[in-house]
Amino acid sequence: MNDARDASHRCGDEDTSFEQLSTQQMLAVNLWCDRYEKLWAKSERPTLAEFVQSVELEDVHAFRALALELITMDVHYKRLAGDSIRLNDFVDQFPTVDEQAIRDILLPKTTTTGSSQTASGLAEENELRKGQQIGDYVIEERIGRGGMGSVYRAHHQLMGRIVAIKALTLRTSQDPSSLLRFEREIKSVAKMSHPNVVTAYDARLQDGSLYLVTEWIQGRDLGEIVLEQGPLPVEEALDVAIQAAKGLDYAHSIGYIHRDVKPSNLVRDGNGNVKLLDLGLAKLLEQRDANTGSTPLTADHQVVGTAEYLSPEQARTPNVVDVRTDIYSLGCTMMFLLTGKPPFVGESPIDTLLEHINAQPPMLCSEMAGQALPDGLSALVHSMLSKSVDDRPASMQTVLKRLVQIRSLTSSDFAAPQAGWNLRDGWLPWVAVAAMILAAIGFAIGRGNFGSRSSDINESSSSSNLSDGLLFNGRTSYAEVQDFDVELDGPAMIEVIATPQTGPLPCNLVTWGGDDLFVLFAGFDQKWGVASLNDGESHLEVSRDSYEIGRKYLLAAKRKGDQLELWVDGSQVPTRRGEYELVSSRRSLCFGGLPDGLLPRHQGTRFFAGIIHQVRISKGEELQPAARVHNILAVESSTVGMFDLSEGEGAEAKSTVNGFRVQLIDTQWEREFQTQKQP
């Protein structure tokens, strides 16, 4: 017996359900269940007792959940084979599993088939009405419909959170093994968490339909954007591809293949964040069809996946694919983003699939894209579209690294023009030449993040004790200035010295609230941002480069009318405009998060994880961000609040200007934390 079984025998009658497991535990349970099922499928008539001896699961809770899954499967196949089934056999073998749970498996409750089941055994989609409830979610409206089912906008009855609900029809047989396997899969999908993957909040089987509840993304899919606006500029297409590759690399790392990567499954929000839709759904649909022996082709002759973006091997044998099928589909998607059309379009879906299998892909070139392409991009896309999986990049991680390299090596050629530049006056080519000369003589050129910027902030802290600061935990911590009455009625600036740590995103470092709103924040993909509500109009800018975890930054956000600027370590940085609907709040000034009720619930609590060392708030016409660390502590005529959070104790901090007092909620002084860590 392994350690998990030994522990299981010592732990008493505590039970563990599958949905309580972590993602990795779920994947491990799925793996062993699949192995046992394959033994039955090969007609090897395995013995459960012998199979359990081969199981390697160190966690007792995962082993107990696995036991219930295996018992259910064993009972199902023994019934099909006409073997005898004895309750005591299972009870004796698994003494720590609740006997009633085993009885329920052996004597399942009788189920009735409602009118939603057709004579063929396929469940028709249940039309959801406005006001109808699915669990704790209230339907508001249907926003789309496709071959897999419908998508609805809904809200959580208690929390008020807006969500999207996908209603998918099922073809699962009613035997416990099929339903249990299906439920394991949807619960695994709901455990996924990554900035570039749409978060699944809940998944359930109800009335013959699968309902997958995900976060609501206020944005548009890349298919719509390209069809409406035309092919994307190179830099924009690279950014989309990099974010998509990050999400896919995460999925592959935990054992999932998307199987349906395409522009319409990439949605971009107002901040420029790209997220993968429908991760895991192709596998669920594949499992659905496998339960009834259905072929991959649906009534309208479309494979699980979309013909224009389907790999040759998925078109031939959809059940036998690996991560390289997603690499192929991402290559097709990149071709569409850059040229406005996928590599293959036949007269019918079947013709398109045959072209994927037999025809050579077109070579991406500047003429096709209608713009100059950076070195290496065409070769990368062509390799991703190779017919043979062995000729493609071996992993999404390889694709991601190459995309980042292409973007960083060509960032000077394809960077957005800064204020005062003109693409027609010859500045950008000269900048590119200068960058090449600097690189040739050994100077450091930025590679797509702020870590390579030279600054005194991480080299010297003689002007103040920057090793100290206020710790925010990313969950409940925030600081609020008491009786803050400074109106945001003109040009203003927020300056912060902060050290970000790993935590939830997006999050606010400083929120200056009132009829107008001014925010310095950290967004998805670890990018700094500034947002402003000015006379009812929302404005938002996000940095193009990402920040590094654990590094100190000198940050500044400026607003003047509808113009926003973002400064990092004393230099203004290029940004891209985003879209986000801001709302007014009571007059306030908060650091590291927000008190409950300050902003609408659907906008979140915005808690920051990390250390904030200093904050300076300024108003006036001529505002210039601090170029060095010690300058932020200087009190100038424009300064309305100066908060040195490297000094203080207890649950309150103070401002050296205007005497503001700061209430601290669930924060901790850095020096106290370090003292506690010492033995």
From TrEMBL:
Keyword presence, Repressor: no
GO molecular function: ATP binding; protein serine/threonine kinase activity
Domain Protein kinase: 137-404
Protein name: Serine/threonine-protein kinase PknB
Binding site for ATP: 166
EC number: 2.7.11.1
UniProt keywords, alphabetically: ATP-binding, Kinase, Nucleotide-binding, Transferase
Transmembrane segments: none
